[in-house]
């Protein structure tokens, strides 16, 4: 006889629910909230049934966890209809599980929401009865469910769920320490959300993606879960400890797959999962078929993807042709003048940054103290290529007066485990010496020649964990790959001009630890360049000088449970720096010269686009008059940067043509393959045939980041099966027609050809400078289109 009454504290209720799922032809669930633990408990039961499932839940007070919803949508796909109760200012507390089968219908009603505890060992009262037993009572509940579901609810679409997740904040009563080190080896929290986004991205047609996730939320395990069904996997990083830690994580998720390494003396080429140091694999001597074929790896992961702008990373990215490429990073900041998004064609599928990760309880909160440091005048420190000269800087930092300032503030706050970030090896050695002399056991940890107070990295870390040392002073060695959850204080002892480095170093102390309530951050700030970025980095707000001048940083919404305190002198300093910023036009020229010196050649449009400081780029785009991308030859001419041959282009028909294509409007990518057909790999054509158009269109859209545009529209989504006739039809009704309409002086009809260039361009098409500018414009316009497409999608989601 079936059990009807349940009082919890055992698995009886869940076991009966499971049996009902197995026998059901359709399922209706209505609960106040959904938890990840509850969904994980029943998800396989729900997956194994072929019936339709309707779930109605509440979103009041942020109790329903976003990851629970993502897990349901990802696993149940089209057979799930998921909705939020959508009547404001009305409590929503029903808990009922309704099952329909061929013989009868049944309902469990009581106090159990969809959480593991409520379905198993919590004290929950529930009652079960069938429609045949109590038909009137059954329909009373069922009809009300129907009304709530169809008339008082909103469908949880991807856009609705994304907005809910972004605004979701961990309820005050929930424990921060629920997000412990990964031991169950199944996706959780943000990993579930990211996996859903990655699956959707592949369905859209993308073959590469970027995931931006704050340090500590489990990026490596995410990669292991996402790549689980691929045959040969490559994981690339830049530090030995990172690939060794990653190998352990992947082995936990894929215990049956073989593990190999490619660095130093290790050159394993026949394993299922290969962990490689970029310094080794990125050498061209290893990027050939004697080691790996170009298509050997089905799935490639680049860890700490913000490094991938370096040459060895680029060598790897250009050589291998995987089915899927995943970039992982915590800090893809354009403010650091290298655009990481571009390497994945701006397909940033998932992002959870510092503020959101703390709000959701995945990272520890911080107490930040911005301490005014007038012991050094940074205006007297030599600058080289926009950076402080290391030797001059360390000499000015290594004074007792400043060390005493740091020491006295350190003593004000209780700390058992501290990391201090210094400007140089000598600076780290000096600070370790000073603290040891003041009876605080400390060590300096850095690469290269060792000093009196230096200790080997692994030995120093163990001593720090065991409280034999109180502080480790380092330079950049601990920015990445360090996993010491017990760190409860970080000292910023250097002028941090890089957002990437600032967030990396902050992240070293944000991992959750059993006895850590918060991280204490002591930031010693002087009048160094970009000091006023700090409030924006801590709050995830966009940099704005007006905000600084109006002192609005004091009103910023910082992460939940975080405390931020700036010395009043710093507020004045931030305002002073904001008021004295250069005009945008002058900043553009300064940025141009800095990039030129950094890359050792005159920047192309593409170089400038990829490397320009984001604050400069944003300000420049707001005014067409100073936007260098609207007439790059004119900008170069104004600044005496043209070659002799390029000077012949100025104010010519060639200049006008190049200016026309660099400013052409692109709501879709269709114009690019037409321009590429004319460019013809540098052997520029004055006319293009139907065959040229077909070949260029087909090649262009076989690249998956371009093919996405075709897949998204009903009339073109079957493009992979198109013949020449269909490609030509699209080309002639869209890009060819619009090029003639908007730039008819350059793109003209000609008998026997698909399209022709103005005859006046004949005198220029063989000039190297004309060819280079033509190619640069195509590359820049394609990449900027990817960026605009990504930002447009983001802004549409914000509106929704």
UniProtKB/TrEMBL annotation:
Pfam families: Helicase_C, PLDc_2, ResIII
Helicase C-terminal domain span: 405-574
Matching CDD domains: DEXHc_RE_I_III_res (cd18032), PLDc_N_DEXD_b3 (cd09205), SF2_C_EcoAI-like (cd18799)
Gene3D superfamilies: Endonuclease Chain A, P-loop containing nucleotide triphosphate hydrolases
GO molecular function, one term: catalytic activity, acting on DNA
SMART domains: DEXDc, HELICc
GO cellular component, one term: cytosol
Domain Helicase ATP-binding, chain residue ranges per copy: 200-350
Residue intervals of the PLD phosphodiesterase domain: 88-118
PANTHER family, sorted: ATP-DEPENDENT HELICASE IRC3-RELATED (PTHR47396:SF1), TYPE I RESTRICTION ENZYME ECOKI R PROTEIN (PTHR47396)
Designated name of the protein: PLD-like domain-containing protein
């Amino acid at each position: 006889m079936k059990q009807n009454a349940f009082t919890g504290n055992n698995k009886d209720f869940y076991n009966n629910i499971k049996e009902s799922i197995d026998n059901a032809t359709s399922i209706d669930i209505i609960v106040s909230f959904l938890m990840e633990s509850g969904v994980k408990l029943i998800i396989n039961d729900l997956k194994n049934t072929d019936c339709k499932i309707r779930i109605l839940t509440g979103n009041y007070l942020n109790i329903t966890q976003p990851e629970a919803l993502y897990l349901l949508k990802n696993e149940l796909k089209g057979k799930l209809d998921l909705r939020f109760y959508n009547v404001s200012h009305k409590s929503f507390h029903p808990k009922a599980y309704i099952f329909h089968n061929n013989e009868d219908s049944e309902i469990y009603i009581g106090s159990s929401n969809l959480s593991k505890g409520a379905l198993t060992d919590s004290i929950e009262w529930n009652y079960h009865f069938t429609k045949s037993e109590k038909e009137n009572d059954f329909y009373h509940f069922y009809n009300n469910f129907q009304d709530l579901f169809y008339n008082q609810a909103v469908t949880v679409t991807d856009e609705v769920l994304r907005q809910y997740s972004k605004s979701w904040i961990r309820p005050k009563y929930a424990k921060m320490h629920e997000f412990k080190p990964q031991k169950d080896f199944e996706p959780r929290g943000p990993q579930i959300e990211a996996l859903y986004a990655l699956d959707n991205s592949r369905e859209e047609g993308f073959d590469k993606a970027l995931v931006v996730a704050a340090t500590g939320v489990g990026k490596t395990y995410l990669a292991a879960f996402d790549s689980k069904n691929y045959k040969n996997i490559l994981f690339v990083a830049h530090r030995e400890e990172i690939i060794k830690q990653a190998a352990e994580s992947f082995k936990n998720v894929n215990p049956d797959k073989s593990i190999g390494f490619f660095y130093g003396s290790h050159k394993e080429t026949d394993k299922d999962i290969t962990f490689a140091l970029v310094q080794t694999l990125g050498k061209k001597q290893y990027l050939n078929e004697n080691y790996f074929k170009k298509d050997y790896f089905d799935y490639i992961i680049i860890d700490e993807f913000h490094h991938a702008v370096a040459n060895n990373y680029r060598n790897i990215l250009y050589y291998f042709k995987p089915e899927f490429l995943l970039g992982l990073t915590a800090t893809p900041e354009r403010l650091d003048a290298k655009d990481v998004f571009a390497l994945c064609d701006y397909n940033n599928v998932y992002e959870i940054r510092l503020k959101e990760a703390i709000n959701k309880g995945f990272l520890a909160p911080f107490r930040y103290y911005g301490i005014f440091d007038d012991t050094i005048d940074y205006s007297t420190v030599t600058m080289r290529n926009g950076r402080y000269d290391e030797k001059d800087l360390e000499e000015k930092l290594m004074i007792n007066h400043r060390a005493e300032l740091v020491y006295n503030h350190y003593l004000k706050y209780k700390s058992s485990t501290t990391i201090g970030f210094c400007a140089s090896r000598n600076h780290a050695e000096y600070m370790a010496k000073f603290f040891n002399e003041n009876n605080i056991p400390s060590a300096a940890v850095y690469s290269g020649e060792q000093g009196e107070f230096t200790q080997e990295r692994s030995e120093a870390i163990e001593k720090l964990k065991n409280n034999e040392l109180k502080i480790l002073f380092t330079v950049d060695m601990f920015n990445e790959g360090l996993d010491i959850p017990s760190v409860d204080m970080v000292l910023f002892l250097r002028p941090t001009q890089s957002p990437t480095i600032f967030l990396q170093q902050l992240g070293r102390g944000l991992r959750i630890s059993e006895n850590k309530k918060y991280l204490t951050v002591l930031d010693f700030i002087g009048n160094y360049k970009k000091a006023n970025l700090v409030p924006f980095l801590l709050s995830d707000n966009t940099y704005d000088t007006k905000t600084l001048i109006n002192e609005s940083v004091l009103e910023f919404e910082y992460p939940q449970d975080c405390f931020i305190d700036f010395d009043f002198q710093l507020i004045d300093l931030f305002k002073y720096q904001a008021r004295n910023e250069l005009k945008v036009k002058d900043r553009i020229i300064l940025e141009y010269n800095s990039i030129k010196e950094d890359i050792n050649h005159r920047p192309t449009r593409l170089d400038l686009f990829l490397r320009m400081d984001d604050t400069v780029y944003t300000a420049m785009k707001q005014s067409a008059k100073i936007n260098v991308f609207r007439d790059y030859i004119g900008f170069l001419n104004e600044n005496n940067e043209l070659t002799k041959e390029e000077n012949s282009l100025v104010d010519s028909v060639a200049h006008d043509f190049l200016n026309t294509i660099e400013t052409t409007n692109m709501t879709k990518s269709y114009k690019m393959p037409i321009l590429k057909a004319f460019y013809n790999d540098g052997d520029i054509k004055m006319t293009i045939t139907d065959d040229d158009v077909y070949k260029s269109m087909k090649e262009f859209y076989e690249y998956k980041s371009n093919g996405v545009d075709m897949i998204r529209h009903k009339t073109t989504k079957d493009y992979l099966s198109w013949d020449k006739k269909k490609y030509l039809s699209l080309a002639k009704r869209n890009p060819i027609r619009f090029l003639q309409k908007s730039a008819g002086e350059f793109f003209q009809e000609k008998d026997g050809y698909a399209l022709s260039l103005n005859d006046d361009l004949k005198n220029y098409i063989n000039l190297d400078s004309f060819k280079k500018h033509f190619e640069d414009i195509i590359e820049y316009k394609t990449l900027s289109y990817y960026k605009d497409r990504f930002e447009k999608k983001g802004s549409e989601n914000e509106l929704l």
